[in-house]
Amino acid sequence: MIKGQNMKVLGKIFGGFALFFIALTFLNSIYTVETGHIAVERTLGKVKINELGEGIHFKMPLITHKDIYVAKEINFTLEDLKPKAADNLSLKDLDVTVYYKVMPTAIAETEIKYAGTRARGSEGAWYPAYGLVHQEARGAAYDAVSKIESLELHKSRDQLAIAIAERLQAKLEKSDPGVFTVSRVIIRALNTDPSIEQSIQLAVQNEKKLEAKRLEVEIARQDAQIEIERSKGIAEANRIINVSLTPEYLQHEINSALQSFADNGGSVVVIPANMQGFDMILDTKSLKKQ
Known about the structure:
alpha+beta; 4 domains; 3-stranded antiparallel β-sheet
């Protein structure tokens, strides 16, 4: 009787373990992929080429494992770079942030081709080909800086960022066409050698002085042009007056003036010494009265 009871107890225990094992196996075979991520499965260590998108998925328990990868934009920052500029002078510090994305349908193949280059992201998912892009971005930054003079780098931050992005995209495209997209590159910090910084400041000051001198020259040139135009106007006015001052016209003006004196009852007229050769109209009425 006791033996039979013990068997029942053991049966219940084993049954409980069996149910627990079944439940654990079921839970281990189901997983969820969130938006912006994809899953890559490995069965007995072999990677499956077909990526799995967002949603609920089932896998073979125990023998199949899944890895979740980020399928949206990823970024990383290269810090304390010291590339040489075109004039062979090294920068003191260059910090660059790179944004890139891997085509979701190519993540599994990328993982096979570049095994060991992935990196664990802050949210727990893997960043595909992170080490590869990181290395190529470093080379692209050094190459881009080498094409610009050190004194021009501060004025060429945007051009430098574009150049780094283009070079990185070209390198990735050459090895894996259509797989990688370099979204953008941002220059976080760009510090040259202290002696170069002084040269840059001096160059800026001299450029401002030169611009001020150019402005002064332009103002002087405009003032001179104004005086020339004013002189031309005066000369033209004098020419017109000289042309219009004929002997007949002058005689007419004199006669008009003398007539005006006569009409106003004037009896005294002062005739300048240089009135020779001109006829005059005298106030005959006033003379008769006198």
